[in-house]
Amino acid sequence: MSLLEIAQAVEAAPFGTALRESRYGFPGLIFVHLCGLLVTAGTIFLWDLRLLGVGFRSTPVSRVGKALLPWTWSGFGVMLLTGSAMVCIEAGRLYSNTAFRVKLMLLILAGLNVLTFHTTIYRGVSRWDTQAVVPARARLAGAVSLLLWCGLLIAGRMIGYTINYGE
Amino acid sequence: MDFLEWCQNSALGAAIRHDAWTIPAIEILHLAGVVLLFGSVLITNLRFLGRILTSEPAGPLAADLGRWTRAGLMLLAVTGPLLFFAMPKKLFETPDFAMKLALVAVAATYYFTIYRRRVATVVFDQAKTDYVKTAAAISLGLWIIAILAGLELGAFS
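Output (structure tokens, whole complex):
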């Protein structure tokens, strides 16, 4: 079974079909997905602004992280659940959608950025915790994160404009 | 409904509709503005309510994040009217559009009047006073209601 066939099978399965045929299924999922986005992206933006030295300058970096992270992950969990459900609705059509593919790649890159940051420069945070302007590598991680999340916002919105319903 | 007609037929409205990618681009900037507004408002007011970053002085934190709240609002104040000019009739055909606009107006008015006056009185950590806490709770609630109304408009239409 190819990936496309799997995607088409997911779309045809009862769960996806039921959601697709329910009047409020898709808009409801998008609405909750956007609520999750506000919490996740809202806290990520602020965290990036701290790393870039343009927000929270007087607050230690690790304290900002501890305060924001639970919100970021909660929102992300909501987005993952509602996002997966929306994929079930139109997996077959999303398979060939460029915006969706770009979005998945950006998501992986954002994950790698977080992983790299936490396993390298952030390990030594105690040395630069209180600095208004943090080391260049931490600033870079903030800038990359900000760009990737802007990209995710763009790619996400573009799925709705480019998905081919081909009826 | 003459005003809607005038917006719809204006050169600005036509210019925005002319290229297929202009409206999505403005929508994305609008969403980025909402994200900035929500993130900064959430953190500021959770701090005032004593739920987050309690070891940090509330006054400087509020002043710092307030800049980003207002940056988000600026982005919204520019992109919102542009979207309205492009499709005023379509927007007014969606349920309760006028009421949603009113909710945004109420949240913004409260923020720029009572909320900002009360928050300005906070010098370092006197944020535990009920005076500021009440304003923080009201302002956060008003913003969330206004933002949810906007999200509902975006998701269901």
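Chain B is about 80% helix and 0% strand.
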